[in-house]
Amino acid sequence: MNTQLLEENTKILRQTAGKWIDKRLVLLTAAQFAARGQQIDEETFTALSTKIKKSGSIFSPLRTIHFPMTGLLLLQKGNGEEGVDELHLKYDLLRSAGFRSSQYTYIAAFLIEPSTQPERVKAIYDELKKYHMFLTSNEDYPAAAVMASRPESVIELADASENYYHFFNKNGFWKGNDLQFLANMLVMNGLFEERTAHAVLEVKQELEQNGIKVRSMHYPALGIMALSGNKEMCVQFVHELRSSPSLKWYKDIAVTLAAIFVSQTVIEASAGLTAAVQAMIQAQQAVIAASTASAVAASSSSGE
Question: pTM, whole model, 2 decimals?
Answer without folding.
Answer: 0.91
